[in-house]
């Protein structure tokens, strides 16, 4: 998986601030940069949680020299979880990303259900003159206030953001409740005069304020709200309580057809971001665009055959993305790895490995099967064979898991990371 500008292909790459255009007006290059940014945001929003795929995302960030601070703040009224990531590329403009987790426990649910509004600026007017002033969801505001004032080492989050605003770029992101809180964090930055080099991208976030709030901040807050078709949560506040209005520019995504996963889950947003990213990357390359190649070590160690995938017909559309995301992961995790092309036999791969000065070949196979008797649960089996270039098998590993809290594409990446070559 690629994270930086100089890597072969960007998975969580250098962040590029782009204006929001209609999809049809984007050039292949701008469409690629936009999809890459959304991909980064989706991974960061996923990484704020505590799922296995979230842990993998954090591990990959650390591998790419991002400095992470994962924190939470709790009281009797709520429990806010968030992740701050600081880019480690010294040659690029510094980027700080703050991502906020969504609902995961009962205190979060209580915050979600605190539908009553409160003044955004409680000092703005006397209690009897507040009707037309900006008001926001009380529970979301409490979360935003808690994170804003959280102490991390020697500085509060607000102080960290203040310092970063003078040195680099800031990206706020989050899913569901986390997206709502990220939106309010962005407004806090605007109120503090820290709105330069700021952008907010949310996934499935509900409305946070009344029309007066939207009228006040709509033109000031650079916010893109990504919403899956069929996601009921993003509109629940407006449906349950009157006088809530969405803010920002909405981008509607369509999850893969036939998926049995709940469309609001962050893993579904991440799955769509993966597909969009690789589709945009392919289109950009076909248009003549150049994405930097991975520079092999001298001499290279691994010759890696493309992932061989066997799936049910219903999962056939996942196969190209499984191959691409695992190839990217290996190229970064195994520096100097040479990726083979499709259709090579083991003997042909061994010969090519010797010609390229490699020491080992790595063959990976994956099967993904739907089990109707288990509520259409998808069972993943991953098999890996490591050989020396003379054909001697060093190791064979096999790993099985149900794809419950991740989609099949995400599961392919997860098992590839789980089963590491043993030399």
From TrEMBL:
<dbReference type="InterPro" id="IPR002921">
    <property type="entry name" value="Fungal_lipase-type"/>
</dbReference>
<dbReference type="Pfam" id="PF01764">
    <property type="entry name" value="Lipase_3"/>
</dbReference>
<dbReference type="InterPro" id="IPR051218">
    <property type="entry name" value="Sec_MonoDiacylglyc_Lipase"/>
</dbReference>
<dbReference type="InterPro" id="IPR029058">
    <property type="entry name" value="AB_hydrolase_fold"/>
</dbReference>
<dbReference type="GO" id="GO:0006629">
    <property type="term" value="P:lipid metabolic process"/>
</dbReference>
<protein>
    <submittedName>
        <fullName>Lipase (Class 3)</fullName>
    </submittedName>
</protein>
<keyword id="KW-0732">Signal</keyword>
<feature type="domain" description="Fungal lipase-type">
    <location>
        <begin position="99"/>
        <end position="236"/>
    </location>
</feature>
<feature type="signal peptide">
    <location>
        <begin position="1"/>
        <end position="22"/>
    </location>
</feature>
């Amino acid at each position: 998986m690629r994270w930086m500008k100089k890597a072969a292909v960007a998975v969580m790459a250098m962040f590029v601030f782009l204006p929001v255009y209609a999809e049809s007006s984007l050039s292949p290059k701008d469409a690629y940069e936009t999809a890459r940014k959304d991909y980064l945001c989706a991974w960061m929003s996923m990484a704020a949680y505590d799922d296995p795929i979230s842990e993998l995302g954090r591990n990959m960030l650390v591998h790419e020299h991002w400095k992470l601070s994962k924190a939470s703040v709790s009281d009797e009224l709520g429990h806010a979880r968030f992740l701050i990531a600081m880019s480690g590329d010294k040659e690029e403009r510094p980027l700080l990303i703050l991502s906020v987790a969504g609902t995961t426990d009962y205190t979060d649910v209580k915050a979600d259900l605190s539908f009553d509004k409160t003044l955004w600026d409680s000092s703005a007017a006397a209690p009897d003159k507040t009707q037309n002033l900006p008001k926001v969801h009380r529970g979301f505001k409490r979360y935003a206030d808690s994170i804003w004032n959280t102490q991390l080492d020697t500085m509060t989050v607000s102080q960290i953001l203040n310092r970063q605003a003078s040195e680099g770029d800031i990206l706020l992101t989050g899913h569901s409740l986390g997206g709502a809180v990220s939106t309010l964090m962005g407004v806090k930055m605007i109120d503090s005069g820290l709105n330069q080099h700021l952008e907010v991208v949310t996934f499935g976030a509900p409305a946070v304020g009344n029309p007066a709030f939207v009228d006040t901040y709509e033109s000031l807050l650079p916010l893109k709200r990504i919403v899956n078709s069929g996601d009921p949560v993003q509109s629940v506040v407006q449906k349950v309580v009157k006088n809530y209005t969405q803010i920002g520019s909405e981008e509607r995504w369509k999850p893969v057809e036939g998926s049995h996963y709940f469309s609001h889950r962050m893993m579904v947003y991440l799955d769509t971001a993966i597909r969009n990213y690789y589709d945009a990357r392919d289109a950009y390359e076909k248009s003549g665009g150049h994405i930097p190649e991975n520079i092999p070590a001298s001499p290279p160690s691994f010759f890696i055959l493309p992932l061989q995938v066997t799936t049910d017909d219903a999962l056939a559309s996942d196969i190209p993305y499984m191959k691409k995301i695992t190839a990217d992961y290996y190229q970064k995790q195994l520096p100097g790895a040479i990726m083979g092309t499709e259709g090579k036999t083991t003997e042909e791969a061994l010969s090519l490995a010797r010609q390229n000065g490699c020491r080992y070949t790595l063959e990976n196979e994956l099967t993904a099967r739907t089990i109707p008797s288990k509520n259409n649960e998808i069972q993943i089996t991953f098999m890996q064979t490591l050989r020396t270039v003379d054909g001697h098998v060093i190791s064979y590993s096999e790993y099985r898991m149900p794809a419950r809290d991740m989609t099949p594409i995400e599961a392919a990446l997860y098992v590839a990371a789980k089963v590491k070559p043993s030399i």
